[in-house]
Input
Amino acid sequence: MSAQLQRAPTQDVVMADQEFKRIASIIHREAGICITDNKRSLAFSRLSKRLKALHLTSFSDYCDLVESRDGADEQLNMVAALTTNVTSFFREPHHFKTLQEDVLPPLIARAREGGRVRIWSAGCSNGQEPYSIAMTVLGMASDMLSRDFKVLATDIDPFVLRHAKGGVYPEAAIDLVPAELKNKFLTRGGDKDDPQWTVGPEPRRMVTFNRLNLMGNWPMKGPFDIIFCRNVVIYFDDPTKDKIWGQYASLLNPDGYLFIGHSERLSGPASSLFQSEGITTYKKTV
Ligand SMILES: C[S@@+](CC[C@H](N)C(=O)[O-])C[C@H]1O[C@@H](n2cnc3c(N)ncnc32)[C@H](O)[C@@H]1O
Output
């Protein structure tokens, strides 16, 4: 193939039906994500950038690369390009009110008696969710840092995890952080015209970030006291969702809590193991 052909402008590239189907099948197999025809233009525009970066001239060549023995790195880019990472600090504030008023007080008491407390933010995106959890805990009980009280935060996308570990966010991102927690745990920096907020050492010490594909094997044994899995399974098909709810049920302690996204609901056999405790909030009953 000539260098000229390899560098054909991306706008000349088309995505044939078969190519879109192949991309949809790869992303479903690798990440559980279902992309239907209405996501076709999104897939086209996001993956066109990858073709351009790799000097490829067709989506078939791109799929060949992703599925080749050397394609693991590009597969990460593909998943990152096709996932939605929208998040915010203290998103769905009612969950944090429930945490503060009902869920955390007995867990803090348990940790003070020497017990173990574990929270998991599954599909944590760029870290705003687990840092919101850690700030809520530490705002109530700063001594939890010296107890066995930890937050695990996982995501499939290594690029959002890198941002999460950096812990730096633009001013607009911190709108919903309560003033008291902002003063305690976030530090303002950056330019006068472009302020950036950095998460302080205490919440960082409480949260551990790891890459985890919910479709793969889960190395952790639990048990967890709280699982946040919000706005993640929304992209999965029903059998996958049902399976994941079941896996969460097995990993949660009796009386453990599961928080899910605003447009999600529990389904499948595991739903009988939980009782509703408010909007998209569930407590394991057995
Ligand atoms: C819309 S964000 C939600 C972030 C946060 N939970 C919230 O509600 O603000 C969805 C996240 O799920 C992650 N995700 C998608 N598929 C995944 C999978 N198979 N395993 C783990 N994480 C996944 C994406 O990378 C993305 O960061």
Remarks:
- The domain at 93-284 is CATH 3.40.50.150 (Rossmann fold).
